[in-house]
Amino acid sequence: MTGVFWVIVFSFNGLVILYFLALNGFYLATSLFAYGAHRRYALRLKTVDLERFLRTGGAPPITLISPAFNEEATLVEAVRSLLSLNYPEFEVLVSNDGSTDNTLEVLTKAFNLGPVDRVPMGGIPTESVRGTYRSRRYPNLWVLDKENGGKADALNAGINYCRSALFCAMDADTILERDSLLRIVQPFLEESTTVAAGGIIRIANGCVIKKGQVERVGLPGNVVARFQVMEYLRAFLAVRMGWDALGSTLIISGAFGVFDRSLVVEVGGYSTTTVGEDMELIVRLHRHCRERRVPYRIGFVPDPVAWTECPETLAVLGRQRDRWQRGLMESLIRHRAMLFNPRYGRLGLVAYPYFFFLEMIGPLVETLGYAVFALTLLAGKAAVAYVMAFLAVAFGFGMVLSLSAVCLEEITFRRYPERKDLLSLFLIAVLENLGYRQLNTYWRMKGTIMGLRGRGGWGTMTRKGFGGDPA
Amino acid sequence: MGGPGNPLSALLSTQVFLALTLTVLTLLGMATFFAVVTFVLRLKNEKEDRRWADLLRSWEPLLLEALYEPEKLQGLWDSVDEKYHLDFLEFNLQYSQRLGGPEKQTLKLAAAPYLEAVRPLLNHRRVGVRARAVQTLGTLGMPEFMEEVKAAVDDPAPFVAALAARLVARQAGPEEAQDFCRRLSRFKTFRNWYLVDMVVDLGPQAIPAIREALADPDRPAQIRAVAAHSLSVLGDLAAAELAGELATTEEDPGLLASLMRLLARVGTGELSSAARAHLDADEFFVRAAATRALSELGGAEDLPYLVEKLNDPSAWVRLAAARGVYHIGSKRAFRALSRGDDPAAPLFRQVLAEEAGK
Known about the structure:
The complex is a heterodimer. By secondary structure, chain A is of the alpha/beta class. Helix content of chain A is 52%, strand content 15%. Chain A has helices at 2-46, 50-56, 75-83, 103-111, 151-161, 180-184, 186-190, 223-245, 261-266, 277-291, 314-334, 345-360, 362-378, 384-411, 419-431, 436-452; strands spanning 62-68, 90-97, 113-115, 129-135, 141-146, 166-170, 175-176, 194-203, 208-210, 213-216, 256-260, 297-308. In chain A, strand 1, helix 3 and strand 2 form a beta-alpha-beta unit. Chain B is mainly α. Chain B is 70% helix and 0% strand. Chain B has helices at 7-68, 73-78, 85-96, 101-111, 127-140, 146-151, 158-171, 174-182, 192-200, 207-215, 221-234, 240-249, 253-266, 272-276, 284-297, 303-309, 315-328, 331-339, 345-357. In chain B, helix 8 packs parallel to helix 10 and helix 11 (221-234) packs parallel to helix 13 (253-266). The radius of gyration of chain B is 31 Å and the shape is extended. Chain B starts with 6 loop residues before the first helix and ends with a helix. The model of chain B has no long low-confidence stretch (mean pLDDT 89). Chains A and B meet through helix 1, helix 2, helix 7, helix 14 and helix 15 of A and helix 1, helix 5, helix 7, helix 9 and helix 17 of B.
């Protein structure tokens, strides 16, 4: 009996090692693909005459949909920032999702809103809209006031009232760089089959923000936020760019993405029954287009930047990661028919299995792996040196991936101009392996378990607002 | 891994341990490599920034002088070291995107002696380098390098080809316009917005060529739709009759919608029947475009058609119809209806709000 037990334990250890090799192998591969893609993008970017599009109005109209729930502290500044974007023709549509604070009043006062009738053009079912308001000062600013239904519902209401062919879904507290719309719209112009494109999200904590724009980029003073800077660099510059180069973008961040409105309406809008509505929509768009053999492209553009405030406490960060994991899980389980299904091409055969086994189930395997490893070690069944070497490999991989992302940042956008920030990033690449990554794994495992048990909600995010001094 | 005392396990354990140790060393080596490369890159980038700033400091005042007094260009040229020719073009290019008129001509003059250095880059294996070369020659070297830029319209990379086409469009005379319109099919993977913007760049002198493209049944429907849309942007009144005629024979929905847009912009009441013919088209966007066209062209006799469209299944058509009813019908009746409980009342209120906001 004991023999069988240890066979199981050793087999599991083998599985953990396999998981670990596969995960890091994928990360390394996407980083390599990302490298080539970034070089191509940087050269192309130089030849795009953004000013021209501004002058001639050659860019298509876009509606920015900003779902807001109890955002009275930050929304006015965020909306001001949106209104100052460089883009020939756009509308800002704030979807006030039944806020219980003074969000609507604050907006009304700041932008001189008045009730104006506007009929919905789409028919996605949503909670009822109580009223539509328009700014007397800025004719392109509209506010929908609706019953609470969650972020996805607020976005759907916005889509229903959107009149342009493209819409930009974003978070209410996101700060878009002035040229971000001009940049993100390029794939829609150059490739008629583009149905969605996502931009890069960067951490605003630590930056100097004035008049709704990031004036000076810097690293946050808060350690938790610093770790996230590194995570975002890795996730966007290396991983998402790499998947995009493979034509397998499965996630466009809910904080900043542009979509073809008619197609999103056709697929029924955002799902209101998942906390990962952003990913779920992308997976559904893939499925819809593949199943109907409609040529399409969903892409990632690494340059249009959306700045967002990240959590600075472990408690809030833990809730966020838990929710992200549940969102990922819900989307993947809902569309499990894609798993290893050749009908979905590279997406079904590579990207989907990667997310399913390595991102969804991975945290469970990893956490159990730590426990079983410890057990093996305690029972004297494995040499301490062996375990230490294995952990060193894990740390080494982590460092290599993070440092390669920092390298990509230096090759491409160099957003952190201070040399001391660069050195700090090196240090973070080392330190994040000593506890932070393990914590993340724990939160994600918790999310997986909560998801399996059908529990959890959105959680709350405490925001400091962008007006204050950098941390 | 494995119990002590088992020789196979021990061997395995040793080998695995060795492998792990080697992996750790490799990873540490890679990590160090990335860190060093990044840091060296930073130093290099900083040096490059300083070099560029120095160049700007030396060229900018001379260029600004030359922009006011072109005879001072010699001073500027004297300051350009041989190894900085391409940098100088880059510098000029940045300015040229912000300047126009005589200043741009001076910039072109300033760049002229160095443009030959760009020619070989037109055949570079990297798309981005070719694109930049096309952009440099197309912006600073026209009309001297027109042939080279025109040739780039056939570049295998659609992005380079489109860039070249745009640059040609800006400089094109009537003859080039015709050639340009013939080659538009090359860009059918691009979105119509982009193509329309490109065609409109040709300017009014290209209208006959664009009209010819619209009339030609052998061209792809998408290109003809782009032509129709472009003519509506250019406000070509003489295209109205052609649009009316084509609207009765063509079947492609995209083309029909563009024709309706053209009719709405330049058509006359006599052509309203062409719009009426498509009020019940299968595609909602054709119905909406036809309704908009009828709203512009129609008279009181068309009011019943528009009223009927207030019940169309598509909200886009209903809104277009409501705008039409306001445009053609009695404003007083419209206001009265907007206050009632008619299902179309919210649409009417929206139209009134839009009108008030104009």
